[in-house]
Amino acid sequence: MKGTIYMIPCPISDERDVWDVLPKANLDVMNSLDYFIVENTRSARRFLSRAGVARRIEELEFVELNEHTTSSGDVERMLKPVLEGRSAGVISEAGVPGVADPGADIVALAHRKGVRVVPLVGPSSILMSVMASGLNGQSFAFVGYLPIKDGERLKRLKELERRALQERQAQLFIEAPYRNVKLFETMLKTLQPNIRLTVATDITSPEEFILTLEVAEWRKRGVPDMAKRPTIFLLGI
Length: 237
Description:
The chain is α/β, with parallel strands linked by helices. It has helices at 18-21, 26-31, 41-51, 72-83, 104-112, 125-133, 150-167, 180-190, 215-221; strands spanning 4-8, 35-38, 61-64, 88-91, 116-119, 140-145, 170-174, 196-201, 209-214, 231-236. Strands 3-2-4-1-5 form a 5-stranded parallel beta sheet. The chain is elongated, with a radius of gyration of 20 Å. The model has no long low-confidence stretch (mean pLDDT 95).
């Protein structure tokens, strides 16, 4: 009998207790597992320790699935124990696994091999930013990182602006935290004054900041405190 893949969310911020942001029912699943497919072993071990799992961390097995995993054969080897009857938990570095995350690779293979995949409840910064934005929750797209080069970035921003205005579809994107301010300043210079821009910073942390204003209003208000802080940006009407 094949095992099951459990998609286990973890906190986005380390500044709050694990069970302040996760349902306690997840712990029963976590306690049943001794095999974990993770984005980062160190952060996964820290999360499970903070969560208070019943087994000693040293008794658990971890394999890493991340941007450095380039071989489909590696992913197949990770799934092999599950095909032999051992269930596994998939854990991202932050938030929900499989969304903007390499965990999708193991899930895709699990479906092809007839393995059951069970998603558990937990915080997703993408969905939470949409929930709190006031933008279109009926139609939205997460497009990941924007290009780094200035010319390509400007072109991409105008494309996203056009989709937001013409299709009424909210556009979500992120940046490396140390480049947040530069991206924000670029948007204030180039976007139309009436388009709405949401800044969602440090979601679920005690310092959480989420605000939606028209670009014209942001120009008057100035740059919020987002330097080196995880942030999601949204455009919409």
